[in-house]
Amino acid sequence: MIEILETALNWVSRLCIAVASIALVVLVVTFGWLVFGRYVLNATPTWVEQLALLLICYIAFLGAAAGVRENTHLGVTLFRDMLPEKAQKVVMIAIDLILAAFGIVMLIAGMELMQFGAGSRLPMLDIPESYRTLAITSCGGLVAIFAGLRAVLRALTFGEDWHLHTHAEG
């Protein structure tokens, strides 16, 4: 069961990275169109700035969620590493639970922002403002799932070797 769950979480993380990567490619292409339009066609496409803001939200938030899953965010482990192994494991589970709580707060706040912005439209793109805040909501839900399930899995495997001093702790 744990292997199936880990495989599913890895798949979701890879999907986040793929969507963020596609958004990055679209961002680069649209800025290329902006430059071409401005300097070659002498007609600046005004929608590029709004699309860029939307894409950056998805790139940042989906990348952040995947970073929680892959455990690639910057962390200071000096004090944790000085603790005995069991205490290190307790600290790691506590950190995962705090991250999961933060993800839940992001999810709830993101849903409120989506409801608030549902009636307004993004300028130049003419799509609901809630599309932008969907990135925040998605990130919050994914962080809650990734960190919360990692805390549960760590608690279930507390007696096993976690390779505490490697870069990839997940």
Automatic annotation (TrEMBL):
Classification via Pfam families:
DctQ
- What Gene Ontology terms for biological process does this UniProt record contain? C4-dicarboxylate transport
Q: Where are the transmembrane segments?
A: 12-36, 51-69, 90-111, 131-153
Provide the topology term for how it sits in the membrane: Multi-pass membrane protein
Q: Which UniProt keywords apply?
A: Cell inner membrane, Cell membrane, Membrane, Transmembrane, Transmembrane helix, Transport
Where does this polypeptide localize? Cell inner membrane
Q: Name one GO molecular function term.
A: transmembrane transporter activity
Domain Tripartite ATP-independent periplasmic transporters DctQ component residues, every copy: 28-153
KW Cell membrane (keyword) present: yes
Q: What does this protein do?
A: Part of the tripartite ATP-independent periplasmic (TRAP) transport system.
Q: Which family does it belong to?
A: Belongs to the TRAP transporter small permease family.
Oligomer and partners: The complex comprises the extracytoplasmic solute receptor protein and the two transmembrane proteins.
Q: What is this protein called?
A: TRAP transporter small permease protein
